């Protein structure tokens, strides 16, 4: 939504400085937002985006920071107030009423021991003085407004019972409950898959049109910016480096840093890798299935089984990357863990570098485990904070008896150099590295075991675009030099296109389409693949998504069977050479 030229400003930030001790995180920042307008605040981690948002809401003090200068003016005319001059009690009346915020991770923002209805009703009781019954009725209407199905039932559920997309919708319902003048959305779609992201963006845009609120949208995803923003403010090291209308910035960015951000952003259709020459298989999966028992009641009686992975077959050759895509809950991560026997499959066969994994006891798998290593989404959670780098990155090599303790520092120096870090960093600890550097350490750690296969499970989804570009460049370089195979799991199809030779699309625990990356993206055959591609932002302001508005569709659900019940499966058919598609029910 574009604000009318005569629209009143809902927010004016004037020369604001934010400090953490002696460090100045935001350095004299100024901008304004009018009613109905969306300003995107973009930049890499550490640029001051979130610090600015927390300063506006005066939550920065709770994070150990302080506003060291400037003014933050909310509203216009007689209703204008300076947020920097308000007491804590006065701020409590403002937050959630005139200014609201949607955070990146709804699970950490929602109270896990309160029902969704109770948390929503609390907003109406606090800011509107409604009775508990009236507040609960308003809460149901709020869930209806953000298009949550079966809103009455959801009121009695807890946050953990909802999907990530539904939890984010609850957060939006809470933020918009009192129809605020200003909504601050801090990376609200970063952790969501493309279809859920598209739905959330559509929802925010339509509600903004209805309410006429100003929107401060914080993100590092320039594709999202192209869809939702009227203007863009680019931050670096706490300072504004460029501010422009969205179309103008995308057409001709003036600052070198803005150009670097644009160039690092992956765009669908930018080209894919050609198929590697090797036909030597590193990984062969045949009819792999993984099921989880569902038990209920006091005696935990077996009610049936949830089919997380259903008869999956695939092959991955030396020097090849297979991209695995699909929405959250479709079975991608369970498939990866089942292949490596981190989750026990119910049936099927897995061969790794010519050795069968599924036919062995777990206790006898150590030699095979060396051949396949995993890189996870959160590098900080993957690294022991108490160990120095030289112990962290060489641990797999020591476990598998490839080196002795005397050789670990030399190997560590070689490994960190291979992933683009300085050799002298091996005495440091994980907290002394940036997110991108920590992910490089995770890759170095995986390399220490001399694997044939690396499974990267959302390995770049939480990183800034420029850092993610560096990590994927590193993976491509390692693959070219050492012939390594990658199973690359991601919800970002543009990134998958850039690094993958082939793509497998998962839906409801099944692979519904698989083939060469260029073929899948240019000629998608399955309706679900087309839906995924329709949800990807075009990256061009004013053009919308690749195939227009996202069609309404039911999110993939894993199949459930009761004891003794068999599950039918439609066949996977080769429609073009090397291009397989699952038949669809009529």
UniProtKB/TrEMBL annotation:
* Domain ABC transporter: residue ranges: 11-262, 283-533
Repeat found in the keyword field: yes
Record keywords, A-Z: ATP-binding, Cell inner membrane, Cell membrane, Hydrolase, Membrane, Nucleotide-binding, Repeat, Translocase, Transport
Query: How does the record classify its membrane topology?
Result: Peripheral membrane protein
Task: Kindly name one Pfam family recorded for this protein.
Answer: ABC_tran
CDD domains registered for this protein in UniProt: ABC_NikE_OppD_transporters
User: Where does it primarily localize?
Assistant: membrane
Catalyzed reactions: glutathione(out) + ATP + H2O = glutathione(in) + ADP + phosphate + H(+)
**Compartments in which it is found:** Cell inner membrane
Question: What family does this belong to?
Answer: Belongs to the ABC transporter superfamily. Glutathione importer (TC 3.A.1.5.11) family.
Q: What does this protein do?
A: Part of the ABC transporter complex GsiABCD involved in glutathione import. Responsible for energy coupling to the transport system.
Q: What is this protein called?
A: Glutathione import ATP-binding protein GsiA
Q: Which organism is it from?
A: Pannonibacter tanglangensis
């Amino acid at each position: 939504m574009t604000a009318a030229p005569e629209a009143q400003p809902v927010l004016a930030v004037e020369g604001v400085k934010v400090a953490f001790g002696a460090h100045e995180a935001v350095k004299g920042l100024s901008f304004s937002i009018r009613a109905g307008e969306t300003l995107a605040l973009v930049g890499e981690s550490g640029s001051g985006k979130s610090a600015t948002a927390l300063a506006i809401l005066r939550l920065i003090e709770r994070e150990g920071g302080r506003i060291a200068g400037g003014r933050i003016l909310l509203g216009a005319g007689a209703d204008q107030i300076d947020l920097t001059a308000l007491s804590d009690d006065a701020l409590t009346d403002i937050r959630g009423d005139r200014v609201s915020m949607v955070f990146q991770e709804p699970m950490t923002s929602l109270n896990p021991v309160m029902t969704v209805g109770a948390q929503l009703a609390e907003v109406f009781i606090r800011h509107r003085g409604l009775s508990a019954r009236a507040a609960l009725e308003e809460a149901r209407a709020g869930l209806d407004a953000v298009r949550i199905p079966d809103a009455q039932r959801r009121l009695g559920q807890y946050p953990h019972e909802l999907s990530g997309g539904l939890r984010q919708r609850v957060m939006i319902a809470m933020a918009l409950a009192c129809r605020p003048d200003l909504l601050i959305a801090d990376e609200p779609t970063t952790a969501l898959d493309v279809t859920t992201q598209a739905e959330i963006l559509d929802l925010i845009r339509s509600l903004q049109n209805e309410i006429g609120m100003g929107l401060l949208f914080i993100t590092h995803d320039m594709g999202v910016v192209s869809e939702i923003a009227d203007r863009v403010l680019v931050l670096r090291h706490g300072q504004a480096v460029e501010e422009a209308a969205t179309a103008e910035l995308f057409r001709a960015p003036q600052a070198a840093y803005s150009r670097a951000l644009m160039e690092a952003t992956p765009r669908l259709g930018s080209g894919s890798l050609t198929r590697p020459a090797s036909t030597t298989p590193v990984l062969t999966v045949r009819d792999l299935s993984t099921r989880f028992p569902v038990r209920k009641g006091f005696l935990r009686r077996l009610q049936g089984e949830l089919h997380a992975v259903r008869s999956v077959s695939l092959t991955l050759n030396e020097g090849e990357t297979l991209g695995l895509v699909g929405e959250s809950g479709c079975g991608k991560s369970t498939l990866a863990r089942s292949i490596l026997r981190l989750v026990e499959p119910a049936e099927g066969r897995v061969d790794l570098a010519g050795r069968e994994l599924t036919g062995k006891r777990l206790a006898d798998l150590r030699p095979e485990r060396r051949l396949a290593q995993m890189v996870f989404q959160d590098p900080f959670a993957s690294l022991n904070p108490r160990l120095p780098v030289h112990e962290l990155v060489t641990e797999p090599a020591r476990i598998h008896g490839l080196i002795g303790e005397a050789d670990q520092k030399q190997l560590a120096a070689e490994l960190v150099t291979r992933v683009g870090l300085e050799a002298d960093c091996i005495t440091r600890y994980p907290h002394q590295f940036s997110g991108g550097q920590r992910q490089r350490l995770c890759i170095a750690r995986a390399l220490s075991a001399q694997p044939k296969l690396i499974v990267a499970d959302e390995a770049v989804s939480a990183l800034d675009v420029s850092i993610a570009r560096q990590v994927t460049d590193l993976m491509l370089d390692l693959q070219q030099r050492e012939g390594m195979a990658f199973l690359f799991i991601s919800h970002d199809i543009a990134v998958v296109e850039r690094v993958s030779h082939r793509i497998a699309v998962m839906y409801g625990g099944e692979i519904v389409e698989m083939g060469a990356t260029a073929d899948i993206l240019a000629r998608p055959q399955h309706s679900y693949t087309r839906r995924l591609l329709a949800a990807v932002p075009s990256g061009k302001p004013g053009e919308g998504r690749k195939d227009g508005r996202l069609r309404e569709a039911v999110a993939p659900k894993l199949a459930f069977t009761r004891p003794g019940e068999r599950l039918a499966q439609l066949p996977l058919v080769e429609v073009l050479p090397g291009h397989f598609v699952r038949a669809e029910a009529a």
